[in-house]
Each structure stands twice: as C-alpha cells, then as structure tokens.
Amino acid sequence: MFGLKVVRQNHVGLVETLGKYSREVRAGLNFYIPIFQKVRIVDLAMIPLALQGYSVITKDNAEVQTNVTLNYHVTDARKFEYENSNSVESMIQLVRGHLRDIIGKIDLNEALGSTSKINADLANAIGDLTNTYGIKVDRVNIDELKPSASITESMEKQIRADREKTATIAKANGEARSIEIETKAKNDATVSTAKAEAAATIARADAKAYEIKKLNDMLASVDNKYFTAQQIQAFSELAKSPTNTVVMSKDEIGKYSDIPVTAQVMNQMANDK
Q: How many other CB atoms sit within 10 Å of the CB of residue 238?
C-alpha cells in the first residue's frame, strides 16, 4: 500500500526510510510507503530573518547595540536537515561572530558613520561559509547601531560643547573682525587727514614761495629811484597823520635833503613845528 505526498512548488521532499535518508523528491505528487517511510518537507524559498539586538564592543571599548536583518535560502536540503542539528542557529552565530569581529576593529564614530561598509564587509566575510549548513545568505543589513545610554549622553554633551565652542569662536572672530575694520577705518581717516594737511601745508608753502619769488623778481627789476620814491611817499603820508614826528640821525636827514622834493617836505615839516 502506497501513500501520497504532495510537495509544493519551491519546496523539496526528503524521503526517510526507517529513519534514514533515502532519496529526494521534487514538487508534485510523490509516492511513499507509510509506516516505513516519512517525507520531510524543506522550503527552498528566500526567508527573511531578524536577529535579536545584541551588544558588540568597538575598538575604543564602546558598547553598541545592533539590530540585523538578513535573507537566506536553502541550497542543499540534505545538509540543511541532516548535517546540522540547527542550521539556522548556526548561520546566526556565524553572522554575529563576524559582525563582532568587524566592528571590534573600528572606532565608534567610524562604526556609526559607515554601516554600508560594514554590511559589505560582513557579506564578504560570511561568503560561502554558510554552505556548510546548506544555506546561502542573499542579503545582510545592519538596521541600527545604537550606543549605550551612557555613551549617548556623553556624545550629546560633547556635541553641545562643540556647538558652544564653535559659537564662541565665531563670536570672537566676529568681534575681532569688527575691531580690525574699525581700527583700519580710523587709521585710514588719520592717514587721509594727515595727507590733506600735508597737501595744504605744501600748497601754502608753494604760494608763499611764489609770492616771495615774485617780490624778489620785482625788486630785482627796480633801481634806487623806486625806493627813494617809496620813502618820499611814506614821509608824505606820515606828514598828514597826527603823529608826524620822525626821529632820524643827522646823516640820514642829510641824505634825504639831497632830493629837492624831500628837502621841501622836510622844510615844510620844520615850518609846521
């Protein structure tokens, strides 16, 4: 008497005869001998698996909680069922062991910032090792790397301290820049004022020099008669003023008496007295 066993698509049946593996049957309707034989069904489809969070230690001795998900499928049903008492658990331990090894070689900051690289390194590390269990890992992904509460608190304090430090430095740089600009403006104004004053001084000196030069040129072009005429004019103006007394030496008076007009002025001044 035969029994009937339907193996669904993407599954495989392992026929055991008196508890010993005898053959493998594919999807469809399969016959077996009841009591003496048993058909064990193995799923060959891809299976998702979430690993429970567990702790790993980084290179700088920081404790990190990890959550990992992976997809795997059975490649060898016979190995999967008979060569390992629990192939899935063996695969999980393999993944966890290599993940601890990878994260243990890097610092916390690097681990938190390079999960994609850790995923790739982990996939390369486990590679074909799971074939021993009749399993192939198709994808592995670190969903979360979470530092312990104490480390998280320390990191938050460090972040706040860094922000305050950055703000203080920015404020100091701004004040220093403001002082620098103000000092430069004052210096520029002082220099401009000094240049203007220097230019004005030079201009006044040039004007005075020009005036002196013109006067010298004019004086160089006249003779003694001009000076005598100027002196006579001065005496004439003096004679008209209330204060018309001039004290002169005998020699000086004699010099002016040589000029007829001067003599006449002198005589008139004498008669007035």
A: 14
